[in-house]
Specification:
The complex is a heterodimer of chains A (550) and B (155).
Chain A (H helix, E strand, L loop, with lengths): L3 H32 L11 H33 L4 H26 L17 H31 L7 H32 L8 H34 L7 H14 L16 H13 L1 H21 L17 H23 L5 H4 L3 H8 L2 H21 L5 H31 L14 H6 L7 H28 L29 H25 L12
Helix pairs in contact in A: 1-2, 1-3, 1-16, 2-3, 2-4, 2-13, 3-4, 4-5, 5-6, 5-7, 6-9, 6-10, 6-13, 7-9, 7-17, 10-13, 10-14, 12-14, 13-14, 13-16, 14-16
Chain B lengths: L4 H26 L27 E6 L2 E9 L2 E3 L4 E2 L4 E8 L4 E5 L5 E4 L5 E6 L4 E6 L12 E6 L1
Classes of the chains: A mainly alpha (550), B alpha+beta (155).
Chain lengths: 550, 155
Amino acid sequence: MIAAQDRKLALWNIGVAYIAFLIGTLCGLLQVFIRNDALQLPSWLDYYQILTAHGVLLALIFTTYFIFGFFITGMSKSLGSFGPKVRLYSWLGFWVTTLGTIMATVMIVSGEASVLYTFYAPLKASGWYYVGLALFVVGTWISSFALVGHYLVWRKKHKGQLSPLFAFMTITTIILWIIACLGVVATVLFQYIPWAFGWVDTINVELSRSLFWYFGHPLVYFWLLPAYMAWYVIVPKLISTKVFSDSLARLSFVLFILFSIPVGFHHQLTEPGISNFWKFLQVVLTFMVIIPSLMTAFSMFATFEISGRKKGAKGLFGWFTKLPWKDVRFTSIFVAMAFFIPGGAGGIINASFQLNEIVHNTLWIVGHFHITVGTPVAMTFMGLTFWLIPYLTGRKFSKAMQKLGFVQIITWTIGMLLMSTSQHILGLLGAPRRTAYSNYNNHPSALEWFDGILTNHVTMAIGGSILFLSAMILIYIVVMSLFLSPKAVRAEDFVEFPMAESDVQNTPKFLENWWIWIGIAFVLIIIAYAIPLTGMIHHAPPGSEGFKTW
Amino acid sequence: MHFHKYEKIWLVFGLVSLILFLSIVGVSAFSHGHTPSGGMDTIDPKKVNETAPFDKPGVTQLDDDTYQVAIVALAFGYNAPELKVPAGKEIIFKVTSTDVVHSFTIDNTKVNMMVVPGQITTKSYTFDKPGKYLILCNEYCGAGHHLMSTEIEVY
């Protein structure tokens, strides 16, 4: 077990994550019923408020807090207990992040910030909403620097050694996060806050959008990389084998630093103000991220096969039956990986330049992120939650809880299959995303969208309801593991942190020379962004005043 | 760094498909003109109604085979009287906004344009089939976002 104070820190982070999860999924449930006209909201509450809360609470708050809870536990486990300074700054980071979260949430609830989590100008929320967002990011930076400090102390004590794989991957994710946030910090501090408080009259809209998406795409890799860490480092242990290749795991992670950032324009393919040349260049860079993804897929299946064959599997696919399907920690993550196959393929479609016109801002996109962040990432986090909280609280994870865990992941899988399939098809038919109930004056094509077996309102509502049920089962498991399950007393009742061995003998040292990767990342960012952003500033049209259209 | 033989095959296969995909997308975009909507023209968002072509929104015939359609998007509708265009002719859509970000999206077509205040979005499209097409906004623009729509008739 790791030090008690580090456990407390991790548990507080995970606790906030699940409070956000509870409210966020409830918002999701309300949305499906408003969308099919089965629910009328009271006059003081509006669909877009709920939609903003759903997006912010699940995509930003749940993910970020859970990720830090996971990182803190794993860093303390792999590098040793935190020193007093690391602990102090981790707490400071936690409280600053939480203050930002509370400010932003209050603004959303009071109807001062129905701008969705993308907060596109010139929709103008209360200035305090943007201050809340800024504090959120600054808080995560403080927490990040605390972990980097812990890592540097370890490096100093172990000169010339490669760090453990978990620590290496944590630092990669943090570097990615800090470089990515530069964009959103720049636009919030220098554009939104002065404009929202009325210190300047207008805002450069296209520049703010581009800076947002400079951040917005690597944000999805900030969610994904911790899930990949579980796949690379936790899964091999669960199937009693080692990491397939330490050097390839590290290489694929540093490739994510390089290729996840200079690609934001692929979210802006159908908009003016960016020339086709720069859009296409970033499309090419976007596709480069497929390389580390293919490496990851290979490593996973190699690990599965090696493990299966060690257990006596025969034939080409015999290893498949030897996987520990009765272990919810494994099965949950396996399902998460399976969802990422169509999820990743959908991503390639979305980023394919002119093909984007077919799907841009349709429900297809909503379907897409529910089978990327909403399942591969979220279900990996669920699979971690099952053992991570009992590990931290020293409570048992009983057979009954394991069964409940299976019910939870099976319901999540069914609910998500129904809802996301329906959303993908609706999107291809042309139904827009981010809309309350609308039949467009009974226009025949709008009525046609919702006519199919899979695309009618009932299917989506059933899917959404099953998902909510699943979320509540998870909340039950979380509350039990936090406060109520019996304490482990006998050695075999304690839940372990399954961290696989990784053989660093053949791993070249340059992989851990961060300056190389940070340097190349900035070169790529400058190539992809310097000229188009300069153009947006120099050839800017008169700026926009703010609008409150809700 | 050691790459397993099968991993080399797998990655080469991946890289080749990547190059193939990107070449198809690139050639189709730049030598056949299949680029997504966009454009680099700017406009003062406060003077849209005085600036051509948005001072007279709607359909204008440019020559025998080309029509221009100018649209002003605003919360929560489109300022574009009587949209009627012929099938089989090139239609050039030009759209801008007087307030927040919107979209100009024609259902059952490839016209899906982001509309950003201060910028003019352009898209050229040829309708194959006559009919009444639903136009809607698919970028969140406020409380009435889901009501923002109109229609274009193709004859």
